[in-house]
Amino acid sequence: MSANNFFGLAEPVRFAGEGSHDPLAFRYYDPQRQVMGRTMEEQLRFAVCYWHSFTWPGGDPFGGATFNRPWMEPGDALQRAREKAEVAFDLFRLLDAPFFTFHDVDVAPEADTLQGSIDNLKSITDLFAQKMEGSKVRLLWGTANLFSHRRYMAGAATNPDPDVFAYACGQVKAAIDATHALKGENYVCWGGREGYETLLNTDMKRELDQLGRFLSMLVDYKHKIGFQGPILIEPKPKEPTKHQYDYDTATVFGFLQKYDLVDDVKLNLEQNHAILAGHSFDHEVKLAYASGLFGSLDINRGDDLLGWDTDQFAMNVSEMTLVFHEMLKHGGFTTGGLNFDAKIRRQSIDPQDLVIAHVASMDACARALLAAERMLADGALEKPLAERYAGWDSAENQAILKGERSLEQVAEHGRTLNPQPRSGGQERLEAVLNRYV
Question: Which end of the chain is more exposed for a tag (fewer CB within 10 A), N or C?
């Protein structure tokens, strides 16, 4: 199968309305429809990821590649990377996608030396710049793969070998340079192996200090080159390591506070990672907003029956409705977006399966966005929430929160009270959510 016209489609996917049964047409995603003062395209800011879409061969821990991808066949590695770019930009065109994302080694082959790898990345960066001139697609974020190569088996920034730390610095510098050159809106640090497999050979304080220094240098360099977007950390509790230092939103918040990085580093959150940490997606998003760390989202999901990161396309409308409800309440994305860090199943071997998967998930997101908009307009969740905490709005109770009352004063007031429990109304609120989705 040739990389030329890989998908066999000429015309971009169009909005056809709810009555359509065409898997290659949008039923809910109407890019120019207004949702709370912005177009749907501006609210959702979809991004196609390079790695799962064009680099993953369809293998799993128990079986090899199942996909027929001509750019994965033996040959000149840099030429294959150029062929892959042609197919990638064709998918961006077919989906009319506003953004894409990449790891450095997804787009350009690794060489025998760091400088050789940097040269390869620069070559593909130049190609991307040329192709972006004739396309609407922009770069949501770039990142460096500091986990696949065997040199990173004990981590990158947290590695016990300072030479590995230095090599990782060189790789990240090249990746953020490429992101900056392509006018990327964010830069992501995904610490796939920044953790441990056993505490028997791990000095946690030393490794956390190394990671804090690494990120501090990256923030300094970001300012030096004039990169305007935030650095994003993507929390994940485990897999491939037993324990990773960016376990969840709360853990990363404490880490950033300790190393004075809160102003420059935000979060890129993913549903499946939230579940692996024992949380819901909505929990992680709400806590990120509460901590001032919300940045961007990976819009994929896991399988409820499997305890590992399956990276499936997001299809759960009610789950996404709650996430978008929180986002819209806070004004929506700034530099962030919805990145499809998702892969088709290894049995989905037809080229058009990749297009259909994106279309279906974009529709699910659009449907959830519209439900969230209606919920906010009706105050469906906000009104009961305000009523539940209304007692704290009085002048006296606000004075407590502002630090204007001592423990003795509040305790004395408490002696005059006899508070009675009130229903939390969980089932009523679950019924409200179901009316909208």
Answer: N
